[in-house]
Amino acid sequence: MSKQRITTARKQASRENKLRRLDNRFSEWVGNEVSIEHAYNHFKIEQQTKGNSKPTIAFYDRFYKKFVSFLAETFKDEPKKLPVNMLTDFVMLQQLFVESMGDVNIQTINAYLRGYRAFGKFCEEQGYIDGFKCPIKEVEPPVKQVYTEKELQRLLTKPDITYFEGFRNYTIICLLLATGVRTNTILNLHIEDVYLDEGKIAFNTTKAHKVVIVPLEKKALIALREYIGYWRTGGDTEPTDYLFCNIYGEQLSRSGLSKAIATYNKEHNVEKTSIHLFRHTFAKDWITSGGDIISLSKVLTHSELDMVKRYANLYDFDVKNEIEQHSSLAKLRTHSGQTIGTKKKQEIEEKSKE
Predict the structure, then answer these.
(1) For range 197-216, the mean pLDDT
(2) Where are the beta strands (DSSP E) in 184-224?
């Protein structure tokens, strides 16, 4: 059965129904202000109707749980009755919120603050509060240890095609290293998204909510052709079926994919098991081999250049040797001549002879 696409009209009707039920269920008012719980549920519905991914929604839920726990502990009140206008004391509230997190790294703190900022801005747009601000001191994340060349050589040892899980995982890793694709995009790929004759693949589920068509590197194309030809063609298989499925032909879950890659890596004597690390490896290799960040941002489906610039800053130390070899200044032949030191030495010698 082909996927049924939800039309814009159906999305709008679904959104309105959810908001109507929300108003009926969460209509507690504290004075003249709506509760934080009501505001958050409204915020969550908006995020879902925008098409944000399940991991993004799950992140907002984690932020909200931690935030209301902090508020309840700080103000000794029932979370459901906390008024949303508490957010207007953003400077004091943000400082207390950060202090409540204890001894955690700055990246974790900033992640929660981005959730706080998104929620606060939404409340301001809805007219619940005025003048919301959430300044965040951004810092460069630590350099991640990417997969080494030796590790990649082990992982790219081609398994027996008759071993479904092994060959599927091998094909996924080939695709990761060829495109730097995200986990959520992989999970939502369909067989019909791969254009074998044209040597391209369509990423229909991206963080930027855009369809991105990416040319496939030759080795990745060969792996996909063999995988699809042997495992995803014939029988009851339909073009709309998921490309990378489990042993029952069902869509892989995020945890299922993570466990599969972790198992595959360990079987090939590679201790690193992170899927996202393949994306960093792809970005690093692109940058250190001289690829431009504009093209990289398109392949990585970043809507803005900020993250790609961060990749460039992270890995710029790796291009030192290349700069020494390939910079314009390095290529210029300088003239050997009399240095200031040599000239001064000669002057001193001439004076001593006088």
Answers:
(1) 84
(2) 194-195, 200-203, 212-215
